[in-house]
Design brief:
The chain is mostly helical. About 60% of the residues lie in helices and about 10% in strands. The chain is built from 7 helices and 2 strands, in the order αββαααααα. A two-stranded antiparallel ribbon has the order 1-2. The two termini are about 30 Å apart.
Length: about 150
């Protein structure tokens, strides 16, 4: 899928929650702003990566690491539940289906594009092989939760 990038944002309309935003300095103003949830962010990252697979020079290793960090910090059952909700909503079903296909094709192997990108991003800070294996394990876990509700 190729487009302006707006097509990856539909899930944020559904998966979001109010968050209080305040200044870092002495300004005391505070605002409640709806912020995209982790599943919406995950779908957006996957779509972005998928759009760039045919143009490897446009791929950013950081995007793979962002996927890994979301998977590491969010319970797979919660992600799976929200993915099912996004997949069932006409507004986000297409983009969610595309993200799930990318998870299947590029995320379940330590040699897939998602694992490779995350491994490249860690550089010398962590073992790239362990990072790639972790990502593929977490993707498998999420997909198992998605396919087996409850």
């Amino acid at each position: 899928m190729r487009g302006s990038g707006g097509e990856r944002l539909e899930p944020a309309i559904i998966d979001n929650s109010p968050t209080i935003i305040s200044a870092l300095d002495a300004d005391e103003r505070r605002f409640a702003i709806r912020v995209a949830g982790p599943t919406a962010l995950l779908v957006a990252k996957l779509i972005k990566i998928g759009e760039r697979l045919d143009a490897p020079t446009r791929l950013a290793a950081k995007d793979g690491l962002d996927v890994l960090r979301i998977l590491q910090t969010t319970e797979p059952e919660m992600l799976a539940s929200t993915l099912r909700r996004l997949d069932a909503d006409p507004l986000s079903t297409e983009v969610t289906g595309t993200a799930l296909q990318l998870f299947q094709s590029e995320g379940t192997s330590p040699h897939g594009a998602l694992a490779t990108l995350s491994a490249q991003a860690v550089g010398v800070l962590a073992d790239p092989g362990t990072t790639a294996a972790s990502l593929s394990f977490l993707v498998e876990d999420l997909l198992d939760c998605y396919e087996t509700p409850g």
